[in-house]
Amino acid sequence: MKLVITEKPSVAQTIAKVIGAYKREDGYLEGGGYIVSWCIGHLVGLAQPDNYDGRFRKWNTEDLPIIPDEWLWLTLPDKERQFNILKGLMSRKDVDELICATDAGREGELIFRLVYQKAGCDKPFKRLWISSMEDSAIKDGFENLRDGAAYDHLYQAALCRSKADWLVGINATRLFTTLYNKRLTVGRVQTPTLAMLVERQQQITDFKKEKYFNIHLRSGELHVVKEKVFSEEEADSIRKACDGSEAVVTNVKQEKKTVNPPALYDLTTLQRESNRNFGMTAKVTLDVLQRLYEKKLVTYPRTDSQFITEDMGETMRRLVQMAERVFNFASSNGCAPDIKRVTNNAKVSDHHAILLTIEVEKATGLSEDEQKILALIAQRMICATSQPHEYVETEITMDCSGHEFRAKGKTVTTAGWKAINDSFKKRYCKSEKKKEPAPALPAGSKGQSFSVAATTSEHFTTPPKAFTEDTLLSAMETAGNEDFADDTEKKGLGTPATRAAMIEKLISSQYVQRNGKQLIPTDDGIKLASLMPEEIKSPKLTADWENALMQIERGDQESATFMSAIAEMVSLLVEKYKALPDSERQLFGVNRTGREIIGKCPHCGSLVYEGKSSFYCSNHDCDFKLWKESNWLSGMGKKLTKKMAQDLLENGRIHVSGLYSRKTGKFFDADFVLDNSGEHGSIKLDFSNSKKGSAKRNGVKQAPGKAKSKAK
What would the pLDDT profile of 543-561 be if each residue is shown by its tens digit? Predict the structure, then answer.
């Protein structure tokens, strides 16, 4: 009996049908000489620090760095039942061999091996390595099972990656959390990604727009431009000199240009275009792809390749023809698919590019998102194997009163792959902005002159654009590429499979927020990036790791050498930063006890904290206090919020709208002014800014509360 272990239950069910394991049992399927069971992602993970030593339950800088001598692996609490099922199946006497059928890659290898080892199993195992869940691919994979030991180096690389991320994540997170008295999460991929977002936001914030002018000359259909003249006086002078004058053609340049078809999709490129065309997040796209993969409609999604291998040529041809029939995009002019364009054995490592499967022709009952992703993949398969887009570009240069003007135009000679792409966008991208085609310039020859009218138009330089998931994924994919070895296959920050999760983690940690399609760092995200050491927030760390992990995969480097270097890096990091001066530890407005700092006391200069009913001075000899609720406040239908208290302490006054007058029964606006004349601290009303509205507004209209006396 052979025990097949997959990464997910849905994959197990698909494989079981193909190999004849139809009998359903508790946590597995059986039949045809096979038992098919599954993990649920990771069943076994690295233990937390307090599992090594109870003192680590409390986070102390003095206990850092935490570097285990022997690593502990624990069954994840919510997955113990399935682990025990697998352990029981492995120990069955009639099971003489295992087949690892987890996802074919570094992480899939780790998932199986950790369960195998944690269960104490020593039975021989083979490896199923497939890129598609089609029946034919599964059958072929089982006929060509590989020896499990052939992937030992892949497992060692995965193990090193997991341990190294634990060392950096645990130690850096505890170090900076205890230093700044606020929970701060730090990671090898997360922190450089955040740093890129913060750097871009800083560029936008620092940007100062500049006015410039374009001068336009027109004669009939002829329109030439002199661009970006930053002096208004100079622009006006040029306009006056040219208006009503003769402009002479000094050069006419015509050039045939070719735009080759795009490559097939890897995961990151597909996620980027899904975000651009449909507004789907990277995570949603990956989730949809995973469902389609499990429905046998697409090939393995977590790939970083954009090519197929030579032996797939005929299959690819049939798939492209099927995509043309099913999706009926614009005609490819009857040209046969050019499969050579997408074939490159050297650029396919674990998995080939994402493709549709032949099952798409029979697919029914798909969700709208699933249909969109299938259409996206279909148009890319057809485009990638279509003819190039060809056009003639014409550039005219003219002289008028000693000033040079230019214009470009294009004439499409062969639409090629762009006809398919345009057809797809017209059908599936309803919000796609129509781009004005470049004009075909009127005929003109060198030396020809035109009587022209001149005008100017006013423009402004624009700041860099905020990152979207599309552009951030692209930046992650290429980050630090100059530091990767030439033959390193997995470059950039993260992997195609993890980049979406990393973006979601930054958002859930409240370091980044979505603003429509834009990704904007929060104040805490900006602060965190500002205090991170360069070695943590630089993509070079990932490049160095990946270079080493690839060497481990190939058997060219010992895993112990890599782990020793990581331990040394973490030790140096802790040593360098744990002596941070107290003056720098309040960056996030939180003190050592974890109490949030509201501001400074106007009486003695000590820190003001938030209590249950008030905002109070931390100096026991000072009586300054601002009550959250009082007779005076509730009489106007208000409470003093934390934000109001912070602004009062910082500015001395705040503008409040929606105050209620019990005397008149009407709402009014006024300033709250901090009154420091008394022994404690009180607030008085000031109406001098009530009409101007120049001060900060904090309130909203509320129903009146019970009348109380003025508060301290």
Answer: 788 888 889 999 999 999 9
Residue 654 · residue 699 · CB < 8 Å = no
Q: Distance between CA atoms of 376 and 13, rounded to whole angstroms?
A: 28
Contact indicator for 460, 370 with CB cutoff of 8 Å: no
Q: What is the three-state SS of 493-515?
A: CCCCCCHHHHHHHHHHCCCEEEE
Cα distance between residue 329 and residue 385, in whole Å = 14
- Angle CA(622)–CA(623)–CA(625) in degrees, nearest 5? 120
Residue 300 is a catalytic residue: yes
Beta strands 2-6; 34-38: pairing state: parallel
pLDDT band at 649 (very low <50, low <70, confident <90, very high): confident
Q: Does position 371 have pLDDT exceeding 70, yes or no?
A: yes
State whether 307 and 339 are in the same domain: yes
Query: Both 272 and 378 in a single domain?
Result: yes
Give the CATH number, domain containing residue 27.
3.40.50.140
In angstroms, rounded to a whole number, what is the distance separating the alpha carbons of residues 204 and 521?
Answer: 12
Cβ atoms within 10 Å of 192's Cβ, excluding its own: 25
Q: Determine the residue type at 31.
A: G
pTM of the predicted structure, to 2 decimals = 0.73
SS (H, E, C) 175-227: HHHHHHCCCCCCCCCHHHHHHHHHHHHHHHHHCCCCEEEEEEEEECCEEEEEE
Average pLDDT value for residue range 37-53: 94
- Of residues 180, 300, 511, 616, which has the active-site annotation? 300
* Residue 102 near residue 148 (C-beta atoms within 8 A): no
Same domain, yes or no: 363 and 294: yes
Tell me: the pLDDT tens digits for 653-693? Answer: 899 888 888 888 888 888 888 877 654 457 888 887 764 43
- Taking residues 159-182, report their average pLDDT: 91
Among residues 332, 366, 387, which one ends one of the domains?
387
Q: 640 or 701, which is more confident?
A: 640
* Residue type present at position 675: D
Exposed, middle or buried, 612 (CB in 10 Å: 0-12/13-18/19+)?
Answer: exposed
Query: Residue 372: pLDDT above 90?
Result: yes
Domain housing 660: 597-686
- pLDDT value at residue 343: 93
| Phi, then psi, of 254 in degrees rounded to 5 | -120, 135
Query: Residue 311 contacts by C-beta under 8 Å, 6 or more apart in sequence?
Result: none
Same domain, 233 and 130: no
Average pLDDT over residues 431-458: 78
CB half-sphere exposure, 58, CA atoms < 13 A: 3
pLDDT of 494-535, one tens digit each? Answer: 888 788 989 999 999 999 999 989 999 999 999 999 988 888
Cα 34 to Cα 21: distance, rounded to the nearest angstrom: 6
Per cent of the chain over pLDDT 90 is: 60
Per-residue model confidence (pLDDT) at position 464: 93
pLDDT in tens, 59-88: 989 999 999 999 999 999 889 999 999 999
Q: Is residue 704 part of a domain?
A: no
- Residue 596's nearest CA partner among 581, 583, 614, 611 is 611
Q: Which band of pLDDT confidence, cut at 50, 70 and 90, is reported for residue 702? A: very low
- Give the Cα separation of 126 and 113 in Å (integer): 12
| CA–CA gap between residue 507 and residue 300 (Å, rounded) | 27
Helices marked H in 295-416: 313-327, 368-384
Pull the structure tokens for residue 524: 């805490």
Residue 695 phi, psi (nearest 5): -85, 175
Domain count, the chain: 5
Q: Which residues contact 678 (CB under 8 A, 6 or more apart)?
A: 712
In this structure, what token pair is assigned to residue 584? 């720098």
Handedness of CA 465, 466, 470, 475 (dihedral sign): positive
In a domain, 698, yes or no: no
CATH number, residue 478: 1.10.460.10
